[in-house]
Amino acid sequence: MDVNIGAGFEAVFLDPVGQAVQQRWADAALAVAFEDLDPVSAFPVVPGRRWGPGLWWSATTGRHVAAGSNAMRTQLMALDRDPQVTGMAGRPVRLLWRNHRGQVRSWVPQLFARYVDGTALLADCPGRPDTGGERALKAAQAVAAACADIGWSYRRLAPLDEVVAANLKWLAGYRHPRNQGRPSLMTDVLEAFARPRPLIEGAEAAGDPIEVLPAVFHALWHHTLTTTLETPLHERVIVSPGSLRRGSGAVPAKNLHDGAGAGRGEESQGCVPAAEYPASGAGRGGAGRGEAV
Fold it and tell me: Is 168 exposed, middle or buried (0-12, 13-18, 19+ CB in 10 A)?
């Protein structure tokens, strides 16, 4: 790892009025709510790509999160569905360090996620496992070391299986609270699926499927109901009570393998993460990757 550990790491971020602040990384990690910050640098627009930077509406926070690429927005979808995530931000911090030759290096991880236990994740979202190079690898190793020093983690997040991605993207279309329907509908839905049964049977038991199905998908997104996502969703898929029954306060183990989509009527694209690429595949600067200097 080409890092002068003795020199330490510095953090650069924007304060609430948009002024750049630089301070010791360990101090910033303790004091700064990175999940509430704007991007420290803009996501680049790459000519010729089908789409550029945009926003992801988070059901976790009720706010928009900046996304610089399709791959990154996919990862935001996944984090948004993780019950242990309490906040997210796109590019909120730049890390600075010196290499063994005394040269200043920096990296802007694409996303930040805060967990219920107070720890956090910094991550990059490459679209392919071969994305990267020596410069990016060194930066990724440095950021991983900086995170490990304070009890956080850094990862390169890999896309999920296309079927899982498509299922989660569909469910994400119903993540907005409006899909709960009338006040008593969600209670009827949970009662209908108090035991495992086919999706359409439970929906019909709770009322008119046209009204009920959005609430069922909303419950599946929020883990109050559950089903397999490894095969395409269909009307006979078995739906069961979930791990987060309303009012239970239960929180499943931290994970990154579920996620997707935008509110129905809100565009979403791409695949969904689960695994991590090996450290040898660290990302480069630019859309869909971290930014190195």
Answer: buried
